[in-house]
Design brief:
The protein is an alpha+beta fold. The chain has a domain of about 50 residues. Helix content is about 25%, strand content about 15%. Strands 1-2-3 form a three-stranded antiparallel sheet, with helices on one face. A hairpin with a 6-residue loop joins strand 2 and strand 3. The termini are far apart.
């Protein structure tokens, strides 16, 4: 049974994203975000979507398993800042 190939490298950058159906997997150097949904139908296309999802999740687990991890990741979001209205 061949493995599904993806170009997704977990935690490699803050820009890459992979889409499977309506499920979006967004890469980040400190976190990976999943949102949306994907239907894994009982047909060949459902099998391919399942394989791609499995490949990505396996890679994520492998990367995390090979590192000394902190208990939690520090929040990296900056507080909102007021900016001058460019249309005023």
């Amino acid at each position: 049974m061949p493995k599904a190939e993806t170009g997704f490298t977990p935690f490699a950058d803050d820009a890459a994203a992979q889409t499977i159906g309506d499920l979006s997997i967004e890469n980040g150097t400190s976190r990976i975000t999943l949102h949306g949904s994907v239907d894994l139908t009982r047909d060949k296309s459902g099998l391919e979507r399942a394989r791609v999802l499995q490949t990505i999740l396996t890679r994520i687990v492998e990367v995390l398993s090979d590192e000394a991890l902190p208990e939690v990741v520090a929040e990296t979001e900056k507080p909102p800042q007021m900016v001058k209205n460019p249309f005023a």
